[in-house]
Amino acid sequence: MSAVIDDHAQGHAHGPAKGLMRWVLTTNHKDIGTLYLWFSFTMFLLGGSFAMVIRAELFQPGLQIVEPAFFNQMTTMHGLIMVFGAVMPAFVGLANWMIPLMIGAPDMALPRMNNFSFWLLPAAFLLLVSTLFTPGGGPNFGWTFYAPLSTTYAPASVTFFIFAIHLMGISSIMGAINVIATILNLRAPGMTLMKMPLFVWTWLITAFLLIAVMPVLAGVVTMMLMDIHFGTSFFSAAGGGDPVLFQHVFWFFGHPEVYIMILPAFGAVSSIIPAFSRKPLFGYTSMVYATGAIAFLSFIVWAHHMFVVGIPVVGELFFMYATMLIAVPTGVKVFNWVSTMWEGSLTFETPMLFAIAFVILFTIGGFSGLMLAIAPADFQYHDTYFVVAHFHYVLVPGAIFGIFASAYYWLPKWTGHMYDETLGKLHFWLSFIGMNMAFFPMHFVGLAGMPRRIPDYNLQFADFNMVSSVGAFLFGATQVFFLFIVIKCIRGGEPAPAKPWDGAEGLEWSIPSPAPYHTFQTPPDVE
Amino acid sequence: MNGLSLKRLVLRLLMLTVVMFAFGFALVPLYDVMCKAFGINGKTGGQYEGSQLADTTRSVRVQFMSTNASDMVWDFYASDDQLQVNPGAVNQMIFIAHNPTDRPMSAQAIPSITPAEAAAYFHKTECFCFTQQVLQPGERIEMPVRFIVDRDLPTGVKHLTLAYTLFDITARHPPVAQASAGDPGRAR
What we know:
The complex is a heterodimer.
Chain A: H1 2-6, H2 20-25, H3 29-57, H4 68-103, H5 111-130, H6 158-185, H7 198-229, H8 243-260, H9 263-277, H10 284-297, H11 313-325, H12 327-341, H13 350-373, H14 375-381, H15 385-415, H16 421-447, H17 462-491
Helix pairs in contact in A: 3-4, 3-5, 3-17, 4-6, 4-15, 5-6, 6-7, 7-8, 7-9, 7-10, 9-12, 9-13, 9-15, 10-12, 12-13, 13-15, 13-16, 15-16, 16-17
Chain B: H1 6-38, E1 60-68, E2 75-78, E3 82-85, E4 90-98, E5 105-114, E6 122-126, E7 133-135, E8 140-149, E9 159-168
């Protein structure tokens, strides 16, 4: 996106440095946001190509393309890269770009740390992806890396995996500290907490979730490291440990993690839907409290991932009811988005299309989550493709569509050009059709008993799997098309006005497009 | 600028990070305590010192299972499949282990009770799982387990399974020559 900012017309004291070192040494929030977004997109394509390998193997029953051992590495790496490499950095990138612009701050509060937290990520993922080329292969134990699969029976490369997770954790924690410090300390005068755009609110809460759970993830991989190399027995029953303990510690991190991946999308959509409905957001205050309630509840539901490992009945009931309770604040949000659109003057530009699809499809994913929350029913669904369908429905049209909607919504601000609306809509429809084709049939094969993470399957699942694979290929190819749309938008297109969407609200639209390299060096007035 | 100064805010957030890292490790003993208190996961308590009056009006079937963890080559089995016992009474079952190899080896047995909610009502007054076993090449030992099924066992439970998994811990705890009992292991 260098072309974006190079042609800035603002007469500032200094612009960006020239050449490669600009990107290595930059402490500018816009540069770092751009780096995060490009990194995230690269990882999205890499993790997506692993998904293509998985779907190619599952196109037909039997083993055709890859060995089961390699298939396991593909499912593991697909999950790890999409969670830690694609979704999380994309939201950090959006936070870097947009939070200072939304609250009228000149930059992030800790710019040097910002640079460091970005540059840890390429190192971490180089380490992680390089394990695929080691003898014995990369991590093959699933993205949840349950012990003892990831300790006693792990490939030798597991140590590199552990250090990669450490680096990602440090990067996320530093990013989160930076976001909190920026939001709490650098708001323009008059920008009270309850005037902040919801994207800023959801990110503030997400950042606290990150600080609360990423250290626990670091702790659990450290325990693995000690079990593997230093003779401790955290997860080894032979020495007095317990493999089930791993699952408890992991999911104490893992469940808040899924909200880390969705809350910023809630925030972005809460800006986009009002803009294209030409109405203020319905129920702003309830949105803030609902986000807080979801974040709180996310800490007391982790064992719903473990209904079948042996929990007392009282525990199953507690975690079942607590999980179902999350549907209440989530329902408040969906209700508010729908009420915002109610009787609005709706137009359907690409960001709005993605945002509406987000609301509908995320709700479908939420409902299958409610089904999974029913402990006795989960005994049937556990570890089947129904679970795969559920979390892809909340993550693809949830997190990923939220990111696409944000990208189209703010691309004019970032690049100074309008994207090609026809191509954007084509991208939306192809993604929408491909995504539903890929993941909806998984509900059916899952309920019929097809287990996840297995490269072969019973003949009765063949037709639905072929549909899934065709849908996945369509979705995958469409994302290369998205790359083309973004590059086309950077290189040219209709010049964007400061506020390209007539219904949009917020400080980010008060500065010119493209956003100058330095903004809000004197705080803006907030009425 | 509102609220705390930047430096104090960042320091507090860093402290929160450290606290949460420590909390991850605190979950380990916390989990053990919870498991023992509630019998989660079929974990049984340590050595039981009390005694109870036998309740002859009720009887419970206790089955015995023995499993070798992977790579464990010993022969390991209970001398009988099951016992019909009265809650409160002291019962005994003999387990047999045999080291068929030509080297001394040490082992640790891990018990587990099914159904898990009965684990808190299963008391062992003596168990080879309280210590580690060291067997010389070709040696065979009989290992008694004495246990009491608590009189308060929920009436719905009529059938218990006591399962042992035997782990080879030779690499971690090299057997001392001619030692027969090994060092006291972690009480379970």
